Amino acid sequence: MTAVYVWIETFNGKALNSSWEALGAGKTIASALNVPLAALVFGENASAVGAEAGAHGADKAIVSEDATLNGFRLEPYAALLSKLVADNKPKAVLAIGTARGRELLAASAGDTDSGLITEATSIEVQGDGAVKVTRPVYAGKILSEAISSAAGTQFLTLRGRAFKPNAEGTGSAEVSTVPAVLAEADIATKIESFEAEVGTVNLTDAAIIVSGGRAMANNPKDAPAGSDAAVWKAQDGFTNVIQPLADTLGAAVGASRAAVDAGYIPYAHQVGQTGKTVAPDLYIAAGISGAIQHQAGMRSSKVIVAINKDGDAPIFKLARYGLVGDLYAIIPALTAELKKRLGK
Questions:
Q1: What is the pLDDT of residues 301-339, one digit of tens each?
Q2: More exposed terminus of the chain, fewer Cβ within 10 Å: N or C?
Q3: Architecture of 208-342 per CATH?
Q4: Residue 183 dihedral angles phi and psi, to the nearest 5°
């Protein structure tokens, strides 16, 4: 079967919303090549998720609900994906570039001696059927174009929030079931349990992010007796300045590495080269100078607003809008005005 495959990542039997973005990108290739778009769903509740994929633009769904696929393990997932690719010769295999998506597609591309392009932010199908991909390199400072061979199967991982999902409709997918390739006895990795982290933040999928930096330590309030003044001031700033703005906008709270290293806020909030890579519709950088390491994690944001008392801070070169001044005066005023206009 010649088709475009899209791996739908799931957890506890539910699809990750970012996987529908991958279906949107897959539709672009499938339509240009006039081939079916097939969703691949492995594990718990796969048939139901496969049917759901039809409403998100998939023509077909290839599913396997074997117990060995409950919970992501590379060995059984890669063995099944590689067999499907070897048997059916799809034109392309796509997945959002999560840790699991990158690992799975890299393994299967190696197994099938196929090409792999990562971190795609745009896709264009050439006249000969080759796929041209734009991807950021050198920490996002340069955009590189890579063109796959028209022959064989091309594996592509996609940057999150770079592609729009197909409009959800009433379409249905033709669901077919395939068996697992590996038996449990053949799988070295075992899953004993999952432990949910408390208080984590999903920056990757956030449409709006409000981030604070080292300058959060400039809060003029006095620290309580016996506390570390600098750390307390910054934590108080995140709680009483950044968080209210984020709550008003329905945004996630991010931070620079400097703020995280200083203990102002947990690592889960870090945006940057050594933190999360994000691409929200709106990114507000408060008290962040804009070092290249931070830019690497947020430069793909659609609209960037910078608030900094240093008018020469590098972040202003990247920002669509810039406010030079004291963030402790600007952000509360901005929050109050937004609450008024949003009726909150």
A1: 999 999 999 999 999 999 999 999 989 899 999 999 999
A2: C
A3: 3-Layer(aba) Sandwich (3.40)
A4: -80, 160
| Single-letter residue type at 264 | Y
pLDDT band for 220, please (50, 70, 90 cuts). Answer: very low
Closest to 85 (Cα-Cα) out of 111, 120, 119: 111
Burial per residue of 87-97, b for 16 or more beta-carbon CB atoms within 10 angstroms, e otherwise: eeebbbbbbbb
Token pair for 102? 């990158």
Phi and psi (nearest 5°) for 147? -120, 125
User: What distance separates the 2 farthest-apart alpha carbons in the chain?
Assistant: 71
| CATH 3.40.50.1220 boundaries in the chain | 208-342
Q: What residues does 94 pair with on adjacent strands?
A: 6, 156
Residue 304 has phi, psi (to 5 degrees) of: -115, 130
The string over 288-305, giving b where at least 16 C-beta atoms fall within 10 Å of a residue's C-beta and e elsewhere, is bbbbebbbbbbbbbeebb
Location of structure tokens 């996002």: 140
How confident is the model over 86-106, as pLDDT tens digits? 999 999 999 999 999 999 999
Q: Which CATH superfamily is domain 4-186 in?
A: HUPs (3.40.50.620)
Query: Where does the chain hold its CATH 3.40.50.620 domain(s)?
Result: 4-186
Q: Which two tokens stand for residue 163?
A: 């592609």
Q: Over the stretch 243-253, which tens digit does the pLDDT of each residue have?
A: 999 999 999 99
